[in-house]
């Protein structure tokens, strides 16, 4: 093979974009279902091209399956260059070596495939590179590259709960069958403890991936817009901030800007100066107008979910930016929260597996957010389709927790929305007592129970959640919390309290509670209706089913 074939093809396609737009190309790689579809398509094509003997104990090209597994593990254990320039040089070197090895004959097919696979690991748009490989790499070697890729993706999907959540959190995710509200059962992921706990003991603590203040507190100067702490002294007010955010410390200001604030609510570039595209007067005005429209929408709706979604997308962009840069370029900024004991998983990997409710955001909501993304990083908006945005909103709505201090506040304005349309969060003292909303990856797996085994509290005065056992728990016991206020208030009968909390659950999470307390307090002969309308994404169902 002519050594320049693959390199020249790649160079003409995308090397220019590796440096300037690596961040959202990599975002596409991690979020685009087309990548997985392409893998399934290529896997089927590879299988059809194999002989019967090849489809047994050997991988494509006659390579033993154990050798293929060893090759994958070897590549996984290798360090990947940190910065975009280093990645580009590494990419070119591996492609060149792969083409040289191809010319040495079948004995070198696996080493050649390993080189091409190394290059694929650092390329910002893998689907694009797979298409190029198919046209330029010898078929036996291309088949091996696809086998390595399929094996890697399979391990990532099947091995996720081996790494998540971190063992230091003393919990694990298990699959159980629960009533589906239609007389049958459905499969559901739940959280269980991995050691014994006494009542009152802290099971774990968890920082939010994203958190937002309630609309009536935003910009008032009473609470930090990042950690949600109540501010005792003069707040820090940035000179340029479309949302009028305030902070309790310079560290909170720095972290918030790096994670999401810069991209969403300022005119500063979300990328380092070396990677940032130039912004002329017209583009600057377009970005300013887009942010104004988004802020006006947030003020109008007074809901947390749209802002949580925006901040989640922005934080993932921030994490991918940090991933693409050499160490030290963004000092003091964590690339993303540590949510696994190893394994290469992104924020989207965690969000993708969670349950959600099907919702229909206003068309205007999707458009104003897409405009903010497009004017900040042209091209990023194409990844927020209406369907994906609706799914993101459904996941934030279903999984978010209310942040409250002590017994909760008593001055939250009443919402003008109809009760069935009012936003709900998992708050054991009631959504009306919260000061803000947080999205937590691990705590999202906790199910509701009207006699809960644990309670989320916020004793640090910030959005950091601590989960405290409310009763003795033995290793393997499921953790449950109360999504709503389940107490019986003064003047309420047992039946009234039961009816009220169950109505809140139906309105906020669309399921009829089947816990023991509800059953014991129910009226004899009462017919329970209402199925659990939460669901998981189809891609997750297919992956776990296979």
Automatic annotation (TrEMBL):
Bilayer-spanning residue ranges: 6-27
Annotated Polar residues bias: 48-60
Main location: mitochondrion
InterPro entries linked: MAS20, SET_dom, SET_dom_sf, Tom20_dom_sf
Gene Ontology biological process terms from the UniProt entry: intracellular protein transport; protein import into mitochondrial matrix; protein targeting; tRNA import into mitochondrion
Membrane topology: Single-pass membrane protein
Pfam short name (any one): MAS20
Compartments in which it is found: Mitochondrion outer membrane
Domain SET residues, every copy: 191-483
GO molecular function, one term: protein transmembrane transporter activity
CDD domains xref list: SET_SMYD (cd20071)
GO cellular component, one term: mitochondrial outer membrane translocase complex
Region (Disordered): 41-65, 409-429, 526-546
Annotated keywords: Membrane, Mitochondrion, Mitochondrion outer membrane, Protein transport, Transmembrane, Transmembrane helix, Transport
Gene3D superfamilies per record: 1.10.220.160, 6.10.140.2220, Mitochondrial outer membrane translocase complex, subunit Tom20 domain, SET domain
Biased composition (Basic and acidic residues): 409-426, 532-546
Family assignment from sequence similarity: Belongs to the Tom20 family.
The protein's name in its UniProt record: SET domain-containing protein
